[in-house]
Amino acid sequence: MNDARGALEELWRDAEGAGEALARVTLTGADPLLPTDFKIGTAASAVIAATALAASEVGRLRVGVAQAVSVDARAAVAAFKSERFLLVNGAPPADPRGEIFGFHRAGDGRFIQLHGALPHHRDGIMDVLQCEDRREAAAAAVAKWRAQDLEDALNARLLPAGMVRTREEWHAHPHGRVIAALPVLEIVKIGDAPPRPLPALAADALPLAGLRVLDLTRVIAGPVNGRTLAAYGADVLHVSSRHLPNMDRLVMDTGLGKLATALDLRTAPDAAALKALVRDCDVFSQGYRPDTLARLGFAPEDLAALRPGLVYVSLCAYGHTGPWRARRGFETLIQSVSGMAHEQGFGGGLDTPQHLPAQVVDHATGYLGAFGALIALARRAREGGSWLVRVSLAQTGRWVDALGRVDGRRTADLGAQDVQDLMADMETPFGRLRYVTPAARFSTTPARWARPAVPLGTHAPAWPA
Questions:
Q1: Are 296 and 266 in contact (CB under 8 A)?
Q2: CA 388 – CA 431 distance, rounded (Å)
Q3: Superfamily of domain 95-410+451-465, CATH level 4
Q4: pTM to 2 decimal places
Q5: Domain segments of the chain: what residues?
Q6: Do 329 and 318 meet the contact criterion of CB atoms below 8 Å apart?
Q7: Which tens digits make up the pLDDT trace of 79-90?
């Protein structure tokens, strides 16, 4: 049994998946595949295989025949680097992160990571630091602070930043202890509803064909959740709001297979339009901080009452509980505060922290959200109920850390030249996209994205006929 197989079986067992289904999964390849000691290939293979197997189980409930699933570790790692391999008309899209993104040494010698990839976050950080949006200016301003004081000041204004901690410091931290007590994902029954058998499915259709998913997420983790469900056949409608910024290259990469509409939930007509969509959907996925949508009338219990039998996926940065639950966060900040970046940098002989060579926390969280949604859909079909699936970047980071280490520092990075056989081309409104194809292989109906990525707000707020 390789590491990925063990991780897969643990995820499947904890989600109470049918044990006999595991015999239909084949995993090949192993770490190290990237220049890191963290087991990114193990994590990627396990969560992608778990999600594909859960989709296969949904298909079995619909047609009576179960598909086998296979995942190769190289393909899984390529999927976890999909945004880095994306090409638009033969060239990589612009990187939106700006100059201040990354690590800065504070006056006490500790490092802090500033994020600021979104304009309003960057403007807020510059306001706190009282400096220009240039790396040298930010470095000089950060040097005037203690790292802990600056982390506190920025997060008090809901600005994304994190002091670089060691693994031991994170494990002893009050919020780190909260995360340690949580499972990697939670699947909770939140309401009663009669069993809802899944509609019949043609033998040559993808396992999720005809199921409807609302995707209210941004950046990577949440959109990967929706993109994965779309690859397995679901109708996914992404719902953005025109006043919220996004990153074009991520919209292109994670928008594959989706329809895209725009609604402002602060207005009564648009809130009503979303509720109309909820009445006819199977999965509602949202990536806002805890309580944000609840204040607008879209809490899990609100929507379960509106649509009994709904599966509600809630994804956030730091988890639904604990002292940091309301903080804004991103993958790289989780790496910084949890010890990952410290280990990747200083543990490799550098005199600075370093991020991992793939967004393992983001991508794994997206697949875990999709996995939980599919397990919940199968439970809904068998026993009824409305279901809440909770995942967070911090919980996933703790899970990745617990997978252990491999001697991978001297491994060459996986480059574009190494994954050309795993890529395909599609004409889109953005131009011709070259993208990483789905890593999971089904024995009968290959996973694929039937719709091109489109600009946000392209479609009306309506389900396809």
A1: yes
A2: 37
A3: Crotonobetainyl-coa:carnitine coa-transferase; domain 1 (3.40.50.10540)
A4: 0.97
A5: 95-410+451-465
A6: yes
A7: 999 999 999 999
